[in-house]
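Standup notes, protein team

Yesterday: finished cleaning the Ixodes scapularis set.
Today: Membrane cofactor protein, putative structure.
Blockers: none.

Input for Membrane cofactor protein, putative:
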Amino acid sequence: MSTSHRTDVLCSLAVIQCPEIPNSNHLRASTVNRTYGIRVHFSCPLNYRLMGPPFVTCWKNASWSDTPPSCERELLFSAEHVTVIKEKSRMGQSIRTEVSVTAYPGDSVQYTCNAGYVLIGDSVSVCEANGTWSKAVPKCKPACEFPGQPAHARLLPSKFHYDIGEVALVACSPGYRLLGSARLRCSRDGHWSSPLPHCRRLLAVHK
């Protein structure tokens, strides 16, 4: 009696895959396929540059041909020094401070002046893609701000800012008496010569 043995040999296709590409901020890959022979191309969004190879290939040993790249934000513009008036010296000369501003396209800067100064020009400027600011650097001019609206009185003239040496007058409404100086002068340091006065109601006198 003879005995026969049958051996089945299975042939299967081994899928070779390279490791997953590390997740990197802003990095764009042409495909998520990572099988043997695939070539993956990389790109970065606007204002970012590719740091590394533009593509990698999956080799037969299940490794990439190179280390995948990353995206680094591209500095297109370093703003010029901005001159800001900080205060007045004893000699009446402006003391200026230079501030170095670094900005990327699309970033914005906002300018403000210290107390006793008003802004002349645009307060907001945007860094353009061509490496220039959308608005010129403004200046800070010595001036007085609106002192406030006294109750039961009128302030003449009434406006947002007053030039150095300009005078504002306070007049009480009928039936009220002024407590304080009716004449306010804008001093050279950008402050008013006296506090805002008050108006007090007159007491009725019965005979």
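Follow-up from PR in the comments: The chain has no helices and 20 strands.
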